[in-house]
Amino acid sequence: MSSEIGDKQSSTTMNRTPKSNQGSSGKKDNRSKLFTLLDKLQLQVSVFVFFVAGVLYWIPSTSSSVGAKFFILQGQNSPNTYLPTKDDGYFVFICIFYIIFTRIFFMNHVFKPFCIHVLKMKGQGARQRFAEQGWALVSYGSSFLWGFKLFYHSPFFNNLDNLYAGYPEQHTMDWEWKTYYLVALANWTAQIFILHVEKKRKDHYEMFAHHIITILLVWGSYVKTFIRIGVFIHMIMDFVDIWLSLAKVLRYCGFSNACDFTFFIFFFSWIALRHGLYNYLLYFTMSRIYDLIGFDACADRPEDPKCQNLEFSISSLVTLLCGLQVIMMFWMFMILKVLYKIMMGANAEDVRSDSEDDDEVEGKQNHKEQQQEEKGNNNEKEEEKEDNEMNNTDSEIDEKSALLKNTENQTAH
């Protein structure tokens, strides 16, 4: 009988198999180990770059030759004007990491705590998406206000001919215009870094193509000082993106009706600005730029970098503007799919995954994550209950085994 109890106890122990964690399954992360590591260390890498640049700035032997270029604008031509120069790369480089640092800081220390303590978001994916869109709202809003300020005080505010008239002698940059352009160039370069180190989205390659074209446009228009059209286009793009980011933020907050209303504003502003005004600016550039630019002035200034290969520069500008419009037409098709589903009675939060990545956490997905988390907690409680029952059974078996052993010893005596 003692042997039977031992066999029963052994059989009970053998049948207790650990449960697999099936609730944490998700989309496979196809990033390389290097990109995964960089994603986790974005804040630390940025601080390290700031430290190295600061050391180079304060060391007397490197301050004037290298260190100062990270923090002071280069290419000053007169007290109020600046020229493009290859040394601008230092300023752009430090701005890239400043943007990465600021983004991660706001996401981790402002928006995610807001999700946890105010919105009571439980899903980690939803908190991440809310933080991303919260930062996007801040970024696009700041860029738009800065661009509008430059636009409002520009000579082309009420006369589009001044976009190109007076070129090249009247098209100069002061410190603010130059800083705006270099920060914009740094921002789009940082976006490429972020696009690759963070988890891939469904429209990864479309976004990558958009960023490359945008960088080429910003860099090319900066080198040739076509900065007026550049600021104008940047401003109208930022205005549209503000409404998209706001719609996403409202969605994650659970305001479905406000999200839908904001999405309609985004849709109409997209049509009006990115396909209406943008295409008019493209047509205006193609039809008027040769008449407005002072080719005769360039003939007298062959050494001016603005005038070198001018016709090729204009052709490249028009080609890149057309390429950007092609990508926006693709996104317009995706937006129309979202709008159609909204008109059929669905919320924007139910269908935004059609135009975003598979991991994008929709409003209902946030609820689903909470349900999954609650289910996981219930499974843990059931498993703990089962463990307690098994422990109680083991204890009973041990007690019976000890009692039987004592009985057998007494019988033997």
TrEMBL record:
UniProt xrefs under InterPro entries: Lag1/Lac1-like, TLC-dom
Bias-annotated ranges (Basic and acidic residues): 362-382
Compartments reported by the entry: Membrane
TM helices/strands, residue ranges: 41-59, 90-111, 132-152, 179-197, 226-246, 258-277, 312-336
One GO MF term: sphingosine N-acyltransferase activity
PROSITE patterns: TLC
Region of interest: Disordered: 1-28, 353-413
Keywords attached to this entry: Membrane, Transmembrane, Transmembrane helix
UniProt family annotation: Belongs to the sphingosine N-acyltransferase family.
Entry protein name: TLC domain-containing protein
Organism: Saccharomycopsis crataegensis
